[in-house]
Task: structure prediction
Amino acid sequence: MVKYEGGYAVETVFDGSSLGIEPHSVELTPAGDLLLLDSMNSNLYRVQLPLSRYSRPKLVAGSLEGLSGHVDGRLREAKLNHPKGFTVDDRGNIYVADAMNMAIRKISDTGVTTIAGGKSMRGGHMDGPSDDAKFSTDFEIRYVSSSCSLLVIDRGNQAIREIPLQPDDCEYQDEAGFPLGVALLFAAGFFGYMLALLQRRVLGMVSATEG
Result:
């Protein structure tokens, strides 16, 4: 038996059929834009919110001609190979699970690089330095801010794997690598302590004057 809860409705807010785009997955950037992955055509787009039938995505990386491959470099020259997922870090860098290349790619303002896998055309399960690592062709990735790392859900190998990122990729860390949240809590506690001391001193001066 199916019981529907009232008050909900479905509306198409983006129609990729007229643009030759096949949405596969989406993510929000820290800036509030929507990233849209077209796995079939090996492209990644950026779309401004709110979505509408008149939204026009801008190509971030890939090929408008639908060409696939494993090419790093400038954004418009780089090529992906039927990626199956992606994630975004605190600074807006994009990490792509480039499935058919069995590689993890990083997209930043300066271009596209490979940070793990992709050296061999044969999949596998190998940990170690990024250029020696091997993945299956069925995996996803997730950014974990608290540990400044990527988790790789490697379904083909029935494993969860981790890639520590560079400190510069994680906004929650300061230049010394100390967690920013902890630093803020420490600063708040320190100023609270100093304020309490100041209040006690003022009260002491007032009491002495009245006496």
